[in-house]
Amino acid sequence: MPTIVHEFDWPDRVVVGTVGRPGSRTFYLQARAGTRTSSVALEKEQSAVLAEMIDRLLDELTVKNDQLSIPSEAPAELLDDEPLDQPVEEDFRTGTMRLAWDPRTLQMVIEAYPVEEDPPDDDDAETADIGIGEDEAEPSEMLLVRIPVGTARAFAQRTRRVVEAGRPTCSDCGLPMDEDGHECPTDDGEQAP
Questions:
Q1: At 64, is the pLDDT very low, low, confident or very high (cuts 50, 70, 90)?
Q2: Beta-bridge partners for 146
Q3: Total-model pTM
Q4: What string of DSSP letters covers 41-81?
Q5: CATH number of the domain where residue 113 is located
Q6: Contact present, 5 and 142 (Cβ < 8 Å)
Q7: How many domains does the chain have?
Q8: What does the alpha-carbon distance between residue 153 and residue 13 come to, in Å, rounded to a whole number?
Q9: Is residue 96 part of a domain?
Q10: Which of 100, 107, 156, 163 would be a feasible disulfide site paired with 125, CB 3.0-4.6 Å?
Q11: pLDDT of the residue at 132
């Protein structure tokens, strides 16, 4: 069966955002071009790692190639603090992600694959996998987004803010606190009375 590819080259918008209240938020990677939108669900940790890997890859490219003009900070005109486009209709839940640099187009490439499916092998680009995949079969679906370096910096900055906007953490144990209170775990891992 052929892979359904939700492909966005030079999208109008690409963001990570959430639906729900802190503590029960669902994270989405959403891309839009014109009237076409695609949203794939992510784990909070996948979102955080994606932002970190984008910044790391851009920093490495800056060091390796002084001919590239890569901003060290997100350009103000590219910052996007708007909520996700509505309605949010999940195309799939992300299992594995791949981040790559395409030297031909000078774009960051983000690929997302459904849970339990691995991306096909591709030796043409520098890549990093984010997530877990166990199956070597051809994926049934994927999200493919190509973005320029300034947009990639702005994407990473927004994603970090979205991840950090969750529940406050306890100053004693560092775990997230719920609205109705929090009990720090004891040394044996149990909740304190």
A1: confident
A2: 9, 109
A3: 0.78
A4: EE-HHHHHHHHHHHHHHHHHHHHH-TTS---SS--GGG---
A5: 3.30.2450
A6: yes
A7: 1
A8: 13
A9: yes
A10: 100
A11: 42
